[in-house]
Amino acid sequence: MPQTFRDAKCYRSMLFVPGHKLDWMLKAPKYGPDALILDLEDSVGVAEKPAARIAVAKAIKELRAKPIGLFVRLNAWRTGYLMDDLNAVVVDGLDGLILSKTEEPQDITALDLVLGELERSRGLPIGSIEVSPYAETALAMYRLYDICMASQRVKRAGGATGPSAQGDGGRSLGLQYEDENAAEGVAFGAYSVLQARAAGIVHIEGGMCAQLDNLDMVRRLGEKSKRLGASFASAIHPSHIPIINEVYSPSQNEVDVAREIIAALAEGIARGDAAVRYKSRLLDYANLRTAMDVINKAKAAGMDVGNVPTVEIPAY
């Protein structure tokens, strides 16, 4: 039986913000990201973690009424910090958790169980908080399918262009290239996309640019990631957000063509033809599904999609 896709809110951009900087977290929405990742892991020193947890919880409470996704990057299992992180930040308004250095499916299963208990004890909707695994070792990348299948809370994963050679994942693999946009990373990225998609994940993360002032790299990395199946990207600097939002939004031409394809197929289906000719192309239900994906992404980005015919589409 085909794996069921896991529905979730569509985000184009997610902005990392250090969890010990309350003023930064509170002003971050003005830069236009679709979601924030309030970080309790690498950007926060050990001595600052207790105060950072308090600041992140306060930020969630103050930002929860805004139309922005609120995620927290947790410290990994086996650090001794994770349970304190969860006790502090699982509050009303939290949309998701990023589990850094996810190593095996049991890491996700355990987090799912603890989250369920916290949701019950705090009167939160059961299963409402997402979990996104960060596969940052060779073993984790090899097991990504099983990691994604460990819980239905997992709705975002990937790494379409592969790991940066300078990061934890690149070091684990022994990668030697310098350019974040290097072609050598595609093999690892494509394998991650394949595993995530096989697990029913449709929200695939693209490459993140670590060069703060290289906006050209942000665009090139985003466009490459999108070609490889990514639907969103994270950023470590606010200046990257407008470019990421543009790259991961359909262009007006893409929207117009998608609408025309849907209209052409709607007319054909109405007269009993599920395959129709459109500008020297033969279209069928597969094209209809792809066109609807474009329209749905455009709607999520707040674009005007015009008058789109309603068409009943078979599941497969």
Topology:
Elements lengths: L12 E6 L3 H6 L7 E5 L9 H15 L5 E6 L7 H8 L6 E7 L2 H18 L7 E6 L2 H5 L1 H6 L6 E3 L9 H6 L12 H13 L4 E3 L9 H13 L5 E3 L5 H7 L4 H19 L5 E3 L2 E3 L1 H16 L16
Parallel strand pairs: 1-2, 1-8, 2-3, 3-4, 4-5, 6-7
Antiparallel strand pairs: 9-10
Task: Give an account of the 3D structure.
Residues 12-238 form the HpcH/HpaI aldolase/citrate lyase domain. Keywords: Magnesium, Metal-binding. Its cofactor is Mg(2+). Pfam families: HpcH_HpaI. This protein is of the alpha/beta class and 316 residues long. The protein folds into two domains: 13-247, Phosphoenolpyruvate-binding domains (TIM Barrel, Alpha-Beta Barrel); 252-300, no CATH class. The protein has twelve helices and ten strands. It has helices at 22-27, 49-63, 82-89, 105-122, 138-142, 144-149, 168-173, 186-198, 215-227, 241-247, 252-270, 285-300; strands spanning 13-18, 35-39, 69-74, 96-102, 130-135, 156-158, 203-205, 233-235, 276-278, 281-283. Helix 2 (49-63) runs parallel beside helix 3 (82-89). The protein starts with 12 loop residues before the first strand and ends in a 16-residue tail after the last helix. 42% of the residues are buried. The mean pLDDT is 92.
